Amino acid sequence: MTTTDVRAPGVRPPAAAPGRRPKRQREGAAWVFLSPWVLGAVVLTLLPMAVSLYLSFTDYDLFNAPHWVGLRNYTQMFTEDPRYWRSVTTTLTYVVIAVPLQLGLALVVALALKNMRTAKGFYRSAFYAPSLLGASMSIALVWRAIFNDGGTVDHLFHTGGWVNRPGWALLAVALLTVWQFGAPMVIFLAGLQQVPAELYEAAEVDGAGKWRQFRSVTVPMLSPVIFFNLVLQTIQAFQVFTPAFAISAGKGGPADSTLFYTLYLYDRGFVASHMGYASAMAWVLLLAIGAVTAVLFRTSRSWVFYASEGER
What we know:
This protein is an all-alpha fold.
């Protein structure tokens, strides 16, 4: 006995569930669109990293075939090369000086711009403009001229030129980084605009002054943004190269006071043609940045406040 399927006129039967073939077609289309990125990641990132890792265990001078030496590059780096440790010390000192100063200045300017009522757009653009220039060679050369013997700073303060003084050359490089605080400033400004005004009103009713409001309201609510900027700027600070290269003419002077890690890596790889040694330095830098980032994430549990969690 057959049951008649009765439907209202004009009503179509429900569509059949999609089969395996349409699903495969969708996956194929996704891979087609992803293929440029996958190809670029493999050819431009993963493959060079693999080659660099191999070269770090070889003696390679760019002119002859690599010769396997095992851990000799790493042993020489840690036990026989005093300039390597000088570059590590210089880089760590730079990070400790430049990152807090840059983030502090960015936060102060962001607070001022948040409460500004007139010409806010102009001042935002003006403070952000130096960051658009980036770490270009031209800006670094201008900075060197400003802080060199006979430059603007020398004429104003009679310092004899910071670039030529071992105790001041590193500070000149750090100030160039601090001057380009526009990117973290914009991020801080966006975070400040998300802090509920009710929290400030409640704190004011409780008798909290501006400084107490900043410590008890602004900083906790802004802590995820502070952490984000801290991680980004720390990673960038470990990789600084162009300002040190321009200010020291590629030598790391005076007296190795601007011998940054990346500058010494460049010197070993492309000046002395010790590419195997430079590859080992690059991998140590990668691991060091990863370790510092992991420590920052670990310590963030005690001071970064997320409003959705309701706890610090």
